[in-house]
Amino acid sequence: MPKHQRFKYKTHDELLNKANELGLELPFQESIDPLFEEVAIGTKKVVNRFVVQPMEGFDSDSNGAPTELTFRRYKRFASGGSGLLWFEATSVVPEGRSNRRQLYINSQNADVFARLVAETRRAAFQQFGASYEVMLVLQLTHSGRYSKSAGKPTPIITHHSAVLDSLYNLPSDYPLIGDDELDKLQESYVNAARLAAKAGFDGVDVKACHCYLVSELLASFTRENSKYGGSFENRTRFLLETTQKIREQVPGIFVTSRLNVYDAMPYPFGFGVEKNDATKEDLSESISLIRVLQDTGLPALNISIGNPYYNPHIGRPYDLPIAGGQTPSEHPLCGVVRLLNITGKLQQMFPDLPIVGTGYSWLRQYFPNVGAAIITAGKATLVGQGRGAFAYPDSVIDLANNGKMDPHKVCITCSACTQIMRDGGKTGCVIRDKEIYGREYRKVRTNVLRMIK
Ligand SMILES: Cc1cc2nc3c(=O)[nH]c(=O)nc-3n(C[C@H](O)[C@H](O)[C@H](O)COP(=O)(O)O)c2cc1C
Q: What percent of the chain has pLDDT over 90?
């Protein structure tokens, strides 16, 4: 296994040589023009191929409404030039929040979400003119096993996992969420989608990634005597029925999904894995699921992999782990190329379905050249930045004006944004937005260290 190393590539040749040395094919091209092409999602247009990936800031008020910091984040993204802003995980029920400050959309605060949408669009108009349209998608979630709505873990699980139950010392008789509760939860997604439509979002995402509840259901092979467990049809039922209900009952909004196609956790506890070797993906079920989603009218898909609590380097290759986290055994570039290849395979199988690719932030200033080559090769339709957008929200403006990103403004994949999140603070980029988040990092880290002592 190639040794983990931090990013140290001063030229793109150095980066490409490293890829070569690791035996990896890293697409790369000089011209970044393809990234500035318009793309259609259903009947709507995205002005370019840049996406801000969903990134939780954990700065809502106690009832889940966006606050000043939430407004600041999305206004910065909107005036930064990405054509599609994929808003962060927003809970559909109070008990499904992963944090006391995770956004939660409900009838009491829908007007604040409407204001967030209006101000986000206004920020884009002010920057780019009145005819400019930014596309806004809201990610709807239930945090499932990672629910922590009152500040301490209150896992809501769909199956017992020999891999994950020990994280929270769950006993073998810990109850599973029942089928009737899952039936009811579908209605909560529909209600949340209705509120999102009223607030002015273009689309909603029924989040099915990173092993939160809907993603965990996809891997509920061992869930017995349940219409949501066992067979492929049962495991995918929640996602398919919920997206279908939103489509039928909520006019004026499209419904999409951010889908984990490979959990990288051992079978029968992980989705999309080879049965005897979880280090390898088996995309056959993901392909069947995407085919059904496309047939039922899903206009776009956002692909991700891994479990941020179990194997965080799989979904977000990094230089440094969080405190107490392990340095991965693989080189981060292996992780980046895995993400590019898996997404590429799926996009090539479904050329008419716009797919958003992820995992570009580790590439820093070379992201656009790799992204453009990926587009040229037909291995994604849009390219997303997650941590990169926290660090450098206006990178697309710099790319439009100068043709390149400033290496002094890029994300350095230090995991400090994840650290704040795990420590229970409000998160953002500690390095490039340090007035706010440097201070927050120090405050919550100090508290945690004091508690450990
Ligand atoms: C602080 C933080 C918050 C995140 N929040 C979300 C989220 O709300 N929804 C989601 O699907 N992914 C979330 N992610 C994952 C990112 O969207 C993205 O998939 C990941 O960081 C890899 O992309 P990148 O290399 O561009 O950062 C989060 C990641 C981090 C570090």
A: 98
